[in-house]
Design brief:
The complex is a heterodimer of chains A (about 525) and B (about 170). With about 525 residues, chain A is an alpha/beta fold. Chain A is built from 24 helices and 14 strands. The longest helix of chain A has 18 residues. Chain B is an alpha+beta fold and about 170 residues long. Chains A and B meet through helix 2, strand 10, strand 14 and helix 19 of A and helix 3, helix 5, helix 6 and strand 5 of B.
Chain lengths: ~525, ~170
């Protein structure tokens, strides 16, 4: 593969799409599939064939179209029409309308694309999502795919690449927010021939599905980002560690890897450079702790996913003791645009200490459930009330939970906080991988705290005592409260124990397990007090 | 290997007959494809569970032997991860998602209703071996919460009544 071939594929694919009069893009990401998208796309295909319209109308299966709660979704080019809750029997009416015959009664409801939900989004990571067929490498190439990999391999030194990433100010999107450029530079500096790159696609946070959407919508974007990272740090072998709960994402990744291999975009001497690169998929088996990098490495090695103390960090001694770079799916998905547009461009978006955009999975008691990508610094109020459309049925927002079990709840009066790594941390929560769950007035915060503690006690790997035993005790204390059997002493004990588990646990899971309790104690203490035994 | 096949499962007994068990072939092929590498243990257990439905101690022993791993290590891995099961599951499976988004939208009520109806706890199978009730930590289908998986099919926006209806249909099949 060389540049000319790449450009030729780009042009022929674009021409192929332009030849058609209309293009129907049907979302087949997991959310819409569960709502019945398969029957819709099947009907579309049959109907187009039946009416002899294959030359004029193209039906494509695409990735996430964002508004997951209203699926199945269909978008039509060039009309800029998005239909929601499409039923298989409405397909005929849709095709009729494409032929200029109006059959309004049977058409599904149109979504207002000028609604803040769409208008406020700024897609960088998701720029191809919903636009291209995730199972077609040609489609990805038609959007300029793999050109940045070529550019990097032939025109940049590994050091240039790392510097560009550093300049962009990108911070790890998995939750910790560690500067990506610094991490890359550390691994690049390490001596040794063998290095590894790992993509953390475990996404165990309940309420988060960004990584899933990215992998299901644009898998090549992640592969290209990983290849660029491998070149920058001097690795040639990489792993994607992905949750077994995401079968569609696994399938699309496998397909993408095969396609890239066939095109010579993976393997040896890519773009006739000395760079060799291969990717293997490792499927997880359901353990939240494996999102922690040292536990993840153990799992890739085929062992129980238990963490080990750091240092040494994986950057020094990771997979099989070799220097290893671990980044999250969304982090890798940001690399291609950073290389294409330059680090300065990326750094111009967002806030001073949190650059670029962030993808959030906005769910819970909110009108518009789905995937959004907004610049860092957008206020939570804007996300929840404008983009999300507020709580349904005139309800009020009580709290917004971010960061999953490692995060905390932001109370309603602090909704004007901008979304940034540091501002969220100040509120006692974290950005996490980007789950954002809205809770309405009827939610009991003590029960939510217990819900997370139940999760943590079950997911604790059991290696260290504070986490293994501490989470159980915390759960029991919370249960005692909820059953109105607790007194002030129990509440004090609860607080002290939270602090101890936080300070003494071995890994991130234990250290952050008490966060939901601490943050609800901070902002909703009165709910705990009212549950105390009256004596 | 055919002498140690799983004749414990009555419904499979006739199918197995006296011919060699094809399911072991699946494991063999997977191990070969992974060059009998010990770090591929989790992949191999996934395939094994796919073929057999669950991980019997006998099969774990078989895998341990082939990969030259101590049985303790294989057993340790098989019991560590939630997705591996050492017990056979029922004819039908129902997985209620207990992710946060599903939880705030009432999936705990769905689970409670089903537990009461079936008379079992989450993680158990009914005594007639018909329905296994499980819970998941997050399916990533939060946009359509609350989600329930009926026999591998993810369905969104469920209610206790809805879920109960599906279970009733299964029970009537019998």
């Amino acid at each position: 593969m060389d540049l000319e071939e790449l450009l030729e594929i780009k042009e022929t694919t674009q021409a192929k799409h332009q030849k058609k009069r209309k293009r129907v893009r049907c979302c087949t990401a997991a959310g819409c599939l569960s709502s019945g998208a398969k029957a819709v796309i099947d009907n579309l295909n049959t109907e187009v064939k039946h009416q002899n319209l294959t030359e004029e109308i193209e039906v494509t299966s695409v990735g996430c179209l964002r508004l997951c709660s209203q699926g199945p979704l269909i978008e039509i080019d060039p009309d800029d029409t998005l239909y929601q809750q499409v039923k298989p029997e409405q397909v005929v009416a849709i095709i009729d309308s494409l032929n200029g015959q109006q059959n309004r009664e049977n058409l599904p409801q149109k979504t207002d694309l000028t609604h803040p939900f769409f208008a406020y989004q700024q897609p960088i990571v998701l720029e191809n999502s919903g636009k291209i067929d995730p199972e077609s490498i040609d489609d990805y190439i038609s959007k300029g795919g793999y050109q940045q990999l070529r550019h990097v391999l032939l025109e940049m030194t590994p050091n240039d690449v790392t510097q560009e990433v550093t300049k962009s100010g990108l911070r790890g999107r998995g939750g910790g927010g560690y500067p990506t450029g610094v991490k890359w530079a550390t691994v690049a500096k390490m001596p040794g021939q063998q290095k590894y790159v790992i993509c953390n696609a475990d996404e165990g946070d309940p309420g988060a599905f960004m990584d899933r959407a990215v992998l299901e919508s644009d898998p090549h974007r992640v592969l290209e980002g990983m290849a660029i990272a491998a070149y920058a740090v001097g690795a040639n072998h990489s792993y994607i560690y992905i949750r077994a709960e995401y079968p569609l994402a696994i399938k699309r990744l496998e397909k993408a890897i095969q396609q890239a291999k066939r095109y010579g975009l993976m393997g040896s001497q890519i773009f006739e450079s000395p760079f060799d690169f291969k990717i293997d998929i490792r499927v997880g088996a359901g353990a939240f702790v494996c999102g922690e990098e040292t536990a993840l490495i153990a799992s890739v090695e085929g062992k129980r996913g238990t963490p080990r103390p750091r240092p040494p960090y994986p950057a020094e001694s990771g997979l099989w003791g070799d220097p290893t770079l671990i980044n999250n799916v969304e982090t890798y998905a940001n690399i291609v645009p950073i290389i294409r547009e330059g680090g300065d461009w990326y750094a111009s978006i967002g806030t001073e200490n949190s650059k670029g955009t962030k993808v959030f999975a906005l769910t819970g008691n909110v009108e518009n459930n789905g995937l959004i990508e907004v610049p860092m610094g957008t206020s939570i109020r804007k996300i929840v009330e404008e983009i999300g459309g507020g709580v349904p049925n005139q309800g009020t927002v009580k709290a917004v939970q971010t960061g999953g079990p490692s995060g905390g709840c932001i109370p309603a009066h602090l909704l004007d906080t901008p979304v940034e790594y540091d501002s969220l941390q100040k509120l006692g929560t974290i950005m996490g991988s980007g789950g954002m769950i809205v809770m309405d007035q009827d939610t009991s915060m003590v029960e939510i705290a217990r819900f997370y503690m139940d999760f943590c006690q079950e997911e604790s790997c059991g290696k260290c005592v504070p986490c293994r035993a501490g989470t159980v005790q915390l759960y029991d204390l919370l249960t005692k409260l909820i059953e109105r059997k607790a007194n002030q002493q129990d509440l004090d004990k609860l607080e002290a124990l939270c602090q101890m588990v936080k300070d003494t646990s071995l890994c991130g899971l234990g250290m952050t397990a008490p966060n939901p309790v601490l943050s609800t104690l901070q902002y909703f203490r009165e709910e705990y007090i009212t549950l105390l035994q009256s004596t | 290997m055919e002498t140690r096949t799983l004749n414990k499962k009555p419904q499979n007994h006739q199918k197995i007959d006296k011919r060699p068990d094809k399911r072991f072939k699946v494991i063999d092929i997977t191990m070969k494809r992974n060059h009998y590498r010990q770090d591929a243990l989790i992949e191999i257990l996934h395939k094994t569970q796919e073929a057999f439905g669950y991980l019997e101690p006998d099969i774990l022993e078989y895998v341990a032997h082939a990969l030259k791993l101590p049985l303790s290590r294989v057993y340790g891995v098989a019991t560590f991860y939630h997705l591996f099961s050492l017990k056979p599951s029922g004819e039908h499976t129902c997985i209620v998602c207990l992710g946060t988004a599903c939880y705030v939208k009432g999936s705990d009520r769905i689970l409670a209703t089903l537990q009461q109806e079936l008379g079992i706890q989450s993680g158990e199978t009914t005594s007639d071996n018909q329905i296994s009730l499980l819970s998941a930590r997050c399916l990533g289908a939060c946009g359509i919460a609350p989600a329930v998986v009926f026999d591998g099919e993810v369905t969104g926006k469920q209610t206790p009544e809805n879920a109960l209806k599906t279970i009733k249909i299964w029970q009537e099949e019998e």
